[in-house]
Design a protein that fits this description.
The protein has 22 helices and no strands. With 486 residues, the protein is mainly α. The chain has one domain. The longest helix is centred in the middle third of the chain and has 35 residues. The chain is globular, with a radius of gyration of 23 Å.
């Protein structure tokens, strides 16, 4: 069980690096949705659409090299060659993208319908974020979660601090201080949001400069070809994931009437944030287990450990699902300040469950990463993206963001089931399907009852939660004792 203790220790720290910054970034949602900043959901809709493009281009600029780095870092004896090759590859591609995008920013602006002043900021942020991909991967591969966490947290603190300064304090200070008057611009809120992001990304790169100064700049063409063969299916999978995760905002903008599109996107995106608790848990878990999967692949009977990992994930994820659903209406006024956004609360349980399925999929995906069959990850993700696109195209006009929510759930559930099906053939893992199925059926059933039948009756919801917690503790008490035993 020492491997499990190490895994849970790393997952906790990576969780701190992900959960705490995201919890701090929760401050931005009430800030953006407040009367003083973006009280109109349509304005928040504009921001959400731009961030959707962020997700897509972040994936393209990484092109699977992070995952390839982990695989070859553990596989190759010459670690410096792996570090140098992957880093140089990303430097060249990132600078090349930056140059071309900056040159054609006006054409890009016209094509996607976003103001050039935002495009310019986005290009710079994408460059800076791409340049820290391998440094962060290096920290994870060398099991330095504390430093990873500190840098991530500093990034978000700077981002939040500048958002608060630009959006709340600057206007008052500009009226009092002549020096700040030249900085403040009225109706400039969206630009300030991306300027804060840009400064935070720049500071993060500065903190990572020691990686570049110590790097041995060795580029191996043959190794690069091998890494690219491994990475390209991951890139395809990543693009498909970005379609599943955020492309619905872009489709809502394109398929809904122009006079309502951004308003619908704003409401949908704000309420989507309430599913962040599940996303945080799944992301932290993934960051912890991905290096673990590779480093323990050659140990004796790793399949048994992988099965236990998924079981724990489903148990804890089920608790999170039911907890957030029960208390969603208590949480919402603290996160989404304006009632103008609350109309979309209906989608919260759907998106929570969708992200739960995605987390299970990430756990199941160990089989194709360990066996170097990453092409299956691409196939499965592309199928998920096709499901997302078909449902959105067919039903957005009639059902708006409700169609997008169900598209996300159906896509992730499909990917989860496909990964399990192919995994049984190529890398059988003895998952405890009875216990996993029990957790899923009970937690989903109780969540649906609590939100759609007994919404607002908190005593009933709390009673459901207590009963489910008791069930999980009863079934997992022996495993929990082994994990936390000194």
């Amino acid at each position: 069980m020492s491997g499990f203790r190490s895994l849970f220790k790393q997952t906790f720290i990576y969780g701190l690096a992900t959960v705490l910054p995201r919890m701090l970034s929760f401050l931005l949602v009430p800030l953006y949705t407040s009367e003083a900043v973006l009280a109109n959901p349509a304005e928040y809709g504009k921001v959400s659409v731009i961030f959707s493009y962020f997700v897509l281009f972040n994936v393209i600029l990484a092109y699977g090299m992070e995952t390839a780095f982990f695989r070859f870092f553990n596989k190759e004896d010459n670690k410096d060659k792996v570090i140098g090759t992957s880093t140089i590859s990303l430097i060249v591609s990132s600078v090349g993208f930056f140059s071309v995008a900056l040159l054609f920013q006006n054409q890009i602006s016209q094509y996607i319908g976003i103001d050039t002043k935002y495009i310019n900021l986005v290009i710079w942020i994408l460059l800076l974020d791409a340049l820290v991909i391998i440094p962060f991967a290096w920290l994870r591969a060398n099991e330095k979660p504390a430093r990873y966490a500190i840098i991530k947290i500093i990034n978000v603190i700077i981002n939040i601090g500048l958002n608060l300064f630009f959006l709340l304090a600057l206007k008052d200070l500009a009226q009092k201080e002549g020096l700040l008057e030249s900085i403040y611009k009225p109706n400039y809120e969206i630009s300030y949001i991306f300027i804060a992001n840009l400064v935070a990304s720049a500071f993060t790169l500065v903190l990572m400069l020691s990686f570049y100064t110590k790097l041995k700049y060795k580029f191996d063409k043959e190794l690069w070809r091998q890494m690219m063969r491994y990475a390209l299916p991951v890139l395809i999978a990543g693009i498909a994931f970005s379609i599943n995760e955020t492309f619905d905002r872009i489709l809502l903008k394109e398929l809904l009437p122009a006079d309502v599109a951004e308003n619908e996107i704003g409401m949908y995106s704000a309420c989507y944030k309430l599913a962040l608790f599940m996303t945080l848990f799944a992301t932290a878990y993934r960051l912890g287990i991905e290096p673990y999967f590779f480093s323990h692949a050659k140990t004796q009977n790793p399949q048994k450990n992988y099965a236990n990992i998924l079981e724990f994930f489903v148990a804890f994820g089920s608790i999170i699902l039911l907890t957030v659903v029960v208390f969603a209406d208590i949480i919402k006024p603290f996160i989404i300040r304006s009632e103008a956004y609350w109309e979309a609360m209906w989608i919260v349980p759907i998106i929570l469950l969708a992200n739960f399925c995605l987390g299970i999929y990430h756990n199941l995906s160990v089989w194709y990463k360990i066996t170097d069959r990453t092409k299956f990850g691409a196939y499965i993700s592309v199928i998920g993206a096709i499901v997302t696109l078909i449902i959105n195209f067919m039903f957005i006009e009639a059902y708006s963001y409700k169609a997008s929510a169900f598209a996300t759930l159906i896509a992730y559930a499909t990917m989860m089931l496909l990964s399990y099906y192919f995994g049984r053939k190529y890398y059988p893992i003895p998952y405890n399907l009875k216990k996993i199925g029990l957790y899923l059926v009970i937690s989903i059933g109780l969540s649906a009852l609590s939100f759609y039948r007994y919404r607002g009756e908190f005593l009933i919801g709390i009673a459901m939660l207590i009963v489910f917690l008791g069930l999980v503790i009863m079934l997992e008490k022996n495993q929990l004792k082994k994990i936390f035993k000194r």
